[in-house]
Amino acid sequence: EARTLVLVKPDAVRRGLVGEVLRRIEAKGYTLVAAELRTADPALLEEHYAEHAGKPFFEPLVTFMSSGPVLAAVVAGERVVEGFRSLAGATDPTSAAPGTIRGDLGRDWGRPVTENLVHGSDSDESAAREISLWFPGL
Ligand code: GTP
Ligand code: MG
Question: Which of 11, 46, 86, 122 has the most Cβ atoms closer than 10 angstroms to its Cβ?
Answer without folding.
Answer: 11
